[in-house]
Every structure is written in structure tokens, then in C-alpha cells.
Amino acid sequence: MSNTVPNPIANGPVASRERRGWAWLGLLPFLAFLAIFLVLPTLGVIRKAFLDNNHSYTTKGFTDAISMEGAAFWNSLKISLITAFLGVIFGTTLAYAAATAKRPKWLRSLVSAFSGVAANMGGIILAFLFLTLLGRQGLGTKILTDNGWDPYKSWFSINDFSGVVLVYMYFQIPLMVLVTLPAIDGLKASWREASANLGGTTFTYWRRVGLPVLAPSMLGGFLLLFANAYSAYATAYALNTQSNLVPIKISFFLRGDVTGRSPAPFALATWMILFMAVSMGGYLVLRKRAERWQQSAAA
Amino acid sequence: MAAISSRIKAYLGRIGPSLVLLAAAVFFIAPILSTARAAFHKVPTILLDRHTWFKKWSLEGVRRAFDEEFFWPTLALSLKLALVTVLITMALLVPTALFVHLRLPKARALVEFLTVLPYVVPPIALVAGVAAFFRPNARWFLNSDFSLAPFYVVMAMPFTYRAIDAGIKAIDVRTLVDASRSLGGSWATTLRKALLPNMASSLLSSAFLTATVVLGEFTIASSLAKNTFATFSFEYFSRDAQGGVGLALLTLLATTALLGLMTVATRSKSRKAATVTRF
Predict the structure, then answer these.
(1) What is the DSSP string of A12-30?
(2) If you ran DSSP here, which 8-state letter would residue B191 be given?
(3) Are the beta carbons of A41 and B130 separated by less than 8 Å?
(4) Contact predicate B142/B134, CB 8 Å
(5) What does the pLDDT look like over A43-57, one tens digit per residue?
(6) Cα–Cα distance between B99 and B91 in angstroms, integer?
(7) Contact B38, B226 (CB under 8 A)
(8) Is residue B18 a contact partner of residue A119, using CB atoms and an 8 Å limit?
(9) Using the beta-carbon criterion (under 8 Å), do A120 and B223 form an inter-chain contact?
């Protein structure tokens, strides 16, 4: 782990102090663009979250959002935690199965290419796919019912919590595959042999070598999947426009409130930005860590 | 004997992974198959049995979708939006990334940090931002359908910048620039003849990925009441489920083809660029 990271600045130009001062101007278009289309709107959201009807600042809207939309918060949190957890488990398992399969040769690239498509899918198309399969009139529902189990007579419905969890797995698992596949490739067969030569069992290998190497990717993947599910809007909306989830509530309040005075949607959005900052920040830090490992493992 | 038993053991060891792959195949393919059936088979699931299974297959549902009044205009708008988004992205990020590499390596960490900021503000929060900032201050801007494009540039920035940056890291920019400049090439020539051709695969992959994201984007488009292909698909599905499903299937195929093209286009060049995703 003590590999020295090559200093990227070392072979750069040694610009004079004067020129460097001007050089910052080169970033101006980029900075201006981000300011107008990302930073100012975001600050606008946060400001409005703390403004009340009389244009005075208060934290009331911010705390009200939690007390009044507690159910939406709780649902979003549950869906994100459950689909992230299951996504990490199934995604890592699938990636491992694909990476270690010797035959057929194209299997690994098929899994990774398909994961690229499915992880990027989401949106309303995904909702349609599952409505044809497990909607009330879906083909899968029909097959299950004909075989003696009517999902709609027990706990399942595509329009409620169970449905959203199932549908989200369609992009969560592939996303996790993409995150862990490089890390699994970084596990060298020689490590396993070394562990066996030293008398280690399969269990020892995983506990002492395998999992510690995969840990940053798995933990980072969990945070990424959490953020991914927490902020997903289109799929849940297409499954059920009335879902009691935070993203849907934000949109609902924005549509309903023509005056733009109510702090509710902005407070909910601010909370979401906070959640995202924590989970995506953690993910990016862990990704850097995992990448460093893969580079030194590949070297 | 020992060789045979170890081979049996190896086979047994593959049972678990094989089952995992099989289960994954069922989970991921079943919705696509049921969508294909719903799109091409005009028999309600309740009436589905041995006798009706082979009857009434047709392309009619998909054809109906093509005949829809808003099919072509919304598709055209989405394609134009994808193009504009890609062009703005390239015009903004390629010079910025090159500039950071050549002139301002000090700013690298800052720029990288700024480009991943959109992760923190997901589309639905950006919609709230539009309501909070653009509605009161620049309402005129939102009237144009193309007002979506800059927001899509922002949404795509974390992976577009990463891809462009990876493309630059994969080549020796400094040597290329020095060689071209010392041969008398202008900055424009250097960019056109030396840098861009060498970065083509990473630029292509980020362009394709951006295009697929724009074509499927629903959240911002529907919140700003724009008639893009995604909002049309949603509205059409609620009127005509079979046509809507046919449309969904076509979109899925087109997206897969785009991403497949991207993989092919980038495979030979750099491995890093080929694994670009939304994240």
C-alpha cells in the first residue's frame, strides 16, 4: 500500500507567477457555466428552504419537512437501504460468478456490457418493462397465478413498496456489478494459492485476503446504490404517480404550488442534497481508494 | 482416478456460480420477453392459453405508435437535444480539461471536485433549483425547449469529464503539443490534428453515453412541461398500453445499440474509457 503515487505536477510546465495568475481566467467559461446551471439553482433551493411566507429566515420549513413528510422520508430511506443492501449482495455475487467463469469465454464481457446498459436504464422504460411482467395483467403474474400463487392476493403489488424494490433491483444489481468487477479482477489467483500454501482454508482466504481487498468497492458501492435509489424519480413515478417517496413529493409540491412560496419542496430537496452529499462523498472517497488498489495490484 | 475426482470437484464447484448466472439471466431477460409479447401479441393475458398463444401476433401496436401525431416531433426534439448537449459538453469540457492538464495542473483537484458536484444535486433537486432560481429570475429562458440542454450537460458532467480526462491521461498531451507547436502548428491545428484524433475514443464514448441519458431523461423534461420523446412515451402509454410498450421496446433496443456501438468504438483504444458509465 505504500506505493509512491507519481506526482502529476512534476512534469508540468513551470509557469511564472505572473502567467499563473492569468491562467485562472481559462477556467472562467467552465466556472460560469457551473455557477449558472448548478450552483445558483442549488443555493436558491437552500435559501428557499429557510424562507417563510413573510420572507424572513426560519428553520421551521426545514424541520417541518421531516415531521410532516415523515412517511415519505421513511419509505425512501427503507427502499434505498434495502435495494442498496440487496444490490451489493447480488451484484457482488453475480460479478464474482461472471469473473471466475472460464467458459463460455464471452460470458464475462456479456455480463459487463449488459450491466452497462441496465445500470444506465432506469427511467420510465424500466417501469413499462416490469408492468408487462408483473403488473396486474402481466405475463409473469398470469404464470404465477396459473401455478397456484397469485402475488396480488399475497404481499406483492407492482405499484407499492414491494414492486418498487423489485424494479429498482434491475438497475441496482448491474450498477454494483460495474463497481465490483474491476475489484474482483484485481484478486490474483496467486494470492489464493499463497493462502492455501500457508495452510489457509477457503474461509481464511476470504476473511483475510478476499473481503479486505473488496471492502472499499463494496462499501463504496453500497453508498452509490443508496444515493441512486434515494434520488430516483422517473421509475417510481411511472409505476405509481402517488408513491409516497421523497422525490415524488418534491415534484408533487412543485406542481401544486404555483406561487412558489411554500418551503416544503425546497426543504425536502435540501434534505435530499444533504443525503447525497454524505453518500456520494463517501462513495467518491472510497472509489479513489479502490482504484489505487487496483492500480498497484495490476502493476 | 485422482484427475477424474478433481475434475468432478471442479464441476461441482461451478454449480453455485452457474445457478447465480442462470437466476440473473431469468431476472434480467424475463421483463424484456414479456414486453416483447405485450408489444406484438394482441391477446389480453386473461385470455392467454394454449389456444390463443399462437394467434394474433402482429406489428400493429408498434405501427400505431409510429402513426401517432407527436411521435416524430418529440423524437426529433430529443435527438436535437442530445446533439446540442453533446456539443456544449465538448465545447466546454475539452478545452477546460486540456487547459487544466497543460497550464493549470494546480486546479486539477478543484475542477475534478466541481465536475462531480452534480452527483450531489440529482435531477429532481435540480428541478427544484429551476423553480427556485430560474422561475423568478429568468423565466424567458425556460420558454425554449433547448433550455433543457444546459441542465443535461450538468447532469452528464461527472461521467463526461471523467471520460475526457481519462482520454487525456492516456495520451502524452505535452509531447503532442510541443511537437505540433515546434513544427509551426497553430493551437487550432494542434487541437484538430494532434489532440482530438488521439482522444476520439474517449470523446465518442462520452458522447454516446450522454445521448442515451438525454434520450431517456424524463424527470426534468416532464417537470418543465417539455414534449420530449420520454414524456411522449409516458403520456402515450397511458392512452394505448400496447403501442406504449412497443415504443418502450424500440427505445430499449436503440439504447442498447447506441451503448453497443460505444463499446465497439472504444474497445481497441483504452480500457478505462470503455467502462464509462453514468457513475
Answers:
(1) S----HHHHHHHGGGGHHH
(2) I
(3) yes
(4) yes
(5) 999 999 988 777 778
(6) 13
(7) no
(8) no
(9) no
